[in-house]
Write a structure and sequence with these properties.
The chain has helices at 56-62, 67-84, 86-113, 151-156, 182-196, 201-207, 270-288, 307-333, 373-377, 405-415, 428-452, 455-478, 516-521, 544-554; strands spanning 115-119, 122-127, 133-138, 142-149, 158-165, 174-181, 209-210, 215-218, 221-224, 252-257, 337-341, 344-349, 354-360, 364-372, 380-387, 398-404, 480-483, 487-492, 496-503, 507-513, 523-530, 536-543. By secondary structure, it is an alpha+beta fold. Among the domains are: 255-287 and 308-415, no CATH class; 428-562, no CATH class. It has a seven-stranded antiparallel β-sheet with strand order 6-5-4-13-12-11-10, sandwiched between helices. A six-stranded antiparallel β-sheet has the order 16-15-14-19-18-17.
């Protein structure tokens, strides 16, 4: 029997003791079973390793999953057939049938070799066709469990669980259980999350015995009943049975639910417009490979278009892109829901592939409110949580993928924290620097056109120079920073304005930069280094004194060293 980590062990003086270092590796894919083995409370099932549904074989065969491990064998088989002349005897049809049979066989073997087990407060996953891999994840190290149901899974009534664990040094934080029946996946996910926040009650009860005089015996010696180790109710008082009441239903608080009208914001977001653009590029390449005779009915000559025809064609293209963006938003964000369940922030979304994502609330360090240029015109925004160890590019960090700005601010205040401190405006020197940077590219093009004497280049340079003026002014108006004692905020950007609110306890360092031109203008750029989101958030061209005060007031005593020290009097 291998002792469970962080579990008190009752020592019987009548039995000989045996011990040794604990190991997470097992040749059978599970720890040694014995009387002391304790399965996670609430997880029902057979005591031994379990397999997923055999229906997943069809999904893995259709998606060619596991082919990477079999590539060496398939290459060797094809080479043998080529040398022995088997390719000619089998024919193309025979080879295709043999390849299909091989894919089904690989999928079946992969399913048979995959097992999972919950025992000793550990999730043990064993997999691998030719090379066996066993991974052990302590239940209390599980951070989140995501559920995905794509169309094939939905047809077969299956689900896929992705488990994020704090397993440093493995190089892979994700574990996956694919092919569970939908009800089984929901039960396993809920029970693992409940077991994650429950202390080893069953282990403690089996490892601690009550003496006749009412005291409890542990490895550290007798301790009065009802002491520090006694189990307590949710109100902080020990219950009569001495077990913690953690199986009660978790309180669920709904933060946001999407509406159909929100889909109309999709054409104003560049990421959603990229979906139909990619589709048009793909179709254009596909159409070029088709015979011209197929399009003889479409006799269109752009050289004969009038100005009105070009305008109508442009409007048609814009409308097509807008419809494609809305369709993409439907597939990604259909029936979006954000709720709080215990200590987890859970979001659900998706039309064909329904995805359920959960994040530990204590890991949330702040949020970013993103407003594109078009989104600001209709007062829309996107909300992203800043989570330790998770990049903002990860869809897990999205608190509101798209919606009204008022809804995004309300979700940020309820789900993260309220920030009411007004943002300080940056000095006029920042406006001059923004204007110079915005006008300089157009001016360079204009000068190049004048030197070359090309009228078209001159026109483009004049247009870029004129457009740079409102762009620089808008960039300056977007600048700002502030602090309310517990958190600080920085804001910047024009085409995409981002307002980031970060807890001061998330800061691991501050960096203050001042170039020669900034020094002459009396401004500095102060950057907060954090372990969440993009990793760095800056207040651009702030007043030098304000930049130092922001770092010193939100970085602790060590950040005050950034302030210049007065010279000692001689």
């Amino acid at each position: 029997m291998q002792p469970e980590p962080n579990r008190p062990i009752e020592v019987d003086p009548n039995q000989p003791t045996q011990g040794g270092p604990e190991s997470n590796d097992s040749t059978q894919g599970r720890p040694d079973s014995g009387e002391g083995d304790v399965a996670v409370a609430g997880v029902e099932g057979e005591p031994g390793p379990a397999r997923t549904s055999p229906k997943v074989i069809a999904i893995h065969a259709l998606t060619i999953r596991g082919l990477r491990e079999a590539i060496p064998g398939l290459v060797a088989a094809f080479a043998w057939l080529q040398v022995s002349g088997g390719v000619r005897s089998f024919g193309i049809v025979g080879i295709l049938l043999a390849a299909a049979a091989a894919l089904v066989g690989l999928a079946a073997l992969s399913w048979y070799r995959f097992t999972y087990q919950v025992a000793n407060r550990q999730l043990i996953i064993s997999q691998g066709i030719f090379s066996r891999r066993v991974r052990t994840i302590p239940v209390d190290r599980i951070r989140a469990i995501d559920s995905q149901v794509n169309p094939l899974h939905r047809v077969l009534g299956l689900a896929r669980l992705k488990i994020e664990a704090a397993a440093a040094g493995t190089g892979n934080e994700e574990a996956e259980i694919d092919g569970l029946p939908t009800e089984t996946a929901a039960v396993l996910r809920g029970d693992l999350l409940r077991a994650r926040r429950r202390p080893a009650a069953s282990a403690a009860s089996s490892a601690t015995g009550a003496d006749r005089d009412g005291s409890r015996t542990t490895e550290a010696g007798p301790r009065p009943a009802g002491g520090f180790d006694a189990h307590r109710r949710s109100d902080g008082h020990p219950d009569e049975a001495g077990t913690e009441l953690l199986d009660e239903p978790l309180e669920e608080v709904e933060y946001s639910r999407s509406r159909l009208s929100w889909l109309l914001y999709a054409p104003l977001v560049g990421s959603y417009l990229a979906i139909p653009l990619a589709g048009l590029v793909f179709l254009s390449q596909f159409v070029d490979d088709l015979p011209d005779s197929w399009f003889s009915w479409a006799n269109v000559d752009p050289s004969t278009f009038s100005a009105a025809d070009f305008v109508l064609a442009g409007l048609g293209l814009v409308g097509l892109l807008a419809i494609g963006a809305v369709i993409g938003a439907v597939f990604l964000n259909w029936r979006f829901l954000l709720v709080k369940r215990g200590e987890l922030m859970v979001s659900e979304r998706g039309l064909l592939t329904r995805r359920t994502v959960s994040v530990e609330i204590p890991r949330i360090r702040g949020y970013t409110l993103s407003e594109g240029l078009g989104m600001r015109l209709v007062r829309a925004a996107r909300l992203t949580a800043l989570i330790t160890g998770v990049s903002t590019a990860n869809s897990r960090s999205q608190l509101l993928p798209l919606g009204p700005r008022r809804e995004a601010v309300d979700v940020a205040e309820r789900a993260v924290r309220r920030f009411d401190s007004p943002l300080r405006r940056h000095p006029p020197a920042a406006l001059r620097r923004r204007l110079v940077r915005a006008v300089l590219p157009g001016a360079a093009v204009l000068v190049t056109g004048l030197i070359l004497g090309v009228v078209a280049v001159i026109i483009v340079g004049v247009a870029l120079t004129i457009l740079g003026i409102p762009l620089g002014i808008d960039r300056y108006r977007s600048l700002g920073h502030g602090s309310d004692g517990e958190s600080f905020a920085v804001r910047s950007g024009s085409l995409v304005r981002q307002t980031t609110v970060m807890q001061r306890r998330a800061v691991v360092g501050w960096k203050v930069q001042q170039s020669l031109f900034q020094k002459r203008a009396g401004v500095s750029t102060v950057t907060a280094l954090v372990g969440a989101g993009t990793g760095a958030y800056s207040a651009l061209d702030a007043d030098s004194a304000d930049a130092l005060n922001l770092a010193a007031s939100n970085g602790g005593r060590w950040a005050r060293e950034l302030r210049p020290q007065p010279e000692a009097h001689r």
